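Quick one - inputs below.
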Amino acid sequence: MTGQWHPDATALAEYRAGLTRGRRARRLAAHVATCESCATVNDELAAVTTMLASAPEPAMPETVERQIMAALATEAAHRPAARGTAPSPAGNGSGPRRPDRGRSGAGSRWLRPAVLASAAAACLVLLGGAYGITRLAGGGSSSSSAASAAAGGAAAGSAAAGSESSALAGAAAPGTHTRQEPANADQPAAFVVTASGTRYEPPTLAAQVRAELARPAKSGTKPSASLAACALHLTGQARPGLVDRATYQGKPVYVIAVANWAWVVGPGCTASNPELMASVGL
Amino acid sequence: MSRAGGAPEPSDAELLRRHVAGDTTAFGVLFLRHKDRLWAVALRTTCDPDDAADALQEAMISAFRRAKDFRGDSAVTTWLHRIVVNAALDRLRRRPARSVSWSGDPDALESMLAQDTRGGPSLAVPSPRAGAGLLPGAPPADQADAVETRLDVAAALRLLSAEQRAALVLVDMLGYPVAEVAVILAVSEGTVKSRCARGRARLLPYLAHLRGNQTAAGAVQPEEGGGG
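Output:
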């Protein structure tokens, strides 16, 4: 009897998966116990699982990781301020900054950085100690001592001690940020590449970038088309306040920053592959 | 678990909560923590590194934005896997012709694959970047074996429908419990089992062939089997 009938592989696989019940299940069990070829198929089905389980798991290629981290950094930089769910002490701190920006740059195009700045300020206070970046939130006196401690640590590198106070002054008085305002409204993308020689390091990155952002405008070179495209891609087409050729952990990089965010990218940075090495809220 | 500098590593749920509260680095930490698993899911489901990269990026941006909707009724990883699998399946639906040059007839593909394992892994390699995830520490011979197994499995997975493949990748390859995979795929546990069972049955002829192939290779290179 059983010699004439053989279940197909799907029926056996379903039986093995526990999908077959009752009389049919008993019949299959009895058949597999006596039919050599079906017992073999049964074993091979188990081998399929073994084969799949033993296939090496691919690690994410570095290029993919960098690409996604860059996309997430861009997303974070353009994120609206957290609302509702977040306790938002930052809402107050960011208040004074908005009218200041509004007064100096009226066009809607320039509203965007202002919105970003307040959004970032909302994030900053919550981020708190991690990067010591509470200061930009309006330059409030309550946070400036913590900030200068952080900046003081940062200044241990190549940044002169004097730049710390100018960083503080720059953040507190938006007037010193005039170099970020549109010199020529037709060319919002125009910016220069400076070479500050700063040796940026991970723990002090935010403070070092703030110091560079606060320096008075200085001369630089014109960015290559690919670097310009890369920078604008990262900033969401906002004009970067800083594009600095420098080193990060000893490696040659460009440090690109807007008022509230900085990116560290490799020297071959392009819009499609920014070679993002680090990014930080300011 | 591990305590570095006295601070316990934040849980996935904690990182997500911090992200929703405005922490700009928390989501990146979460992504880096699970990147290889998520990559494996995306790559195995799409069978194409470019599609996998695009799907994963799309999924991570989506998760980044939708984090506040996460209700905590599943693990964060389950939620992330679900978004990645959906993005991968979505991409396959949008680009059905891209993953393999094949008429759609399963038998035709099977014979193509069978010929291919004799002639070399060309069909199985979707792009040069497929080699990017090799085992860097393995000695050359082992590495070659590992690559061959991987490519054959990758080729075999293409025999399956996208739904079967997603289920089998999660259950058999990555070892997730059926109950969790049911949540990831938003289907019943019975459906997961059924898709896996049909997928295994579908792969059976191909893996049997592969096993025969390995025996043949052993005969050509006796040192591989120990030589006596």
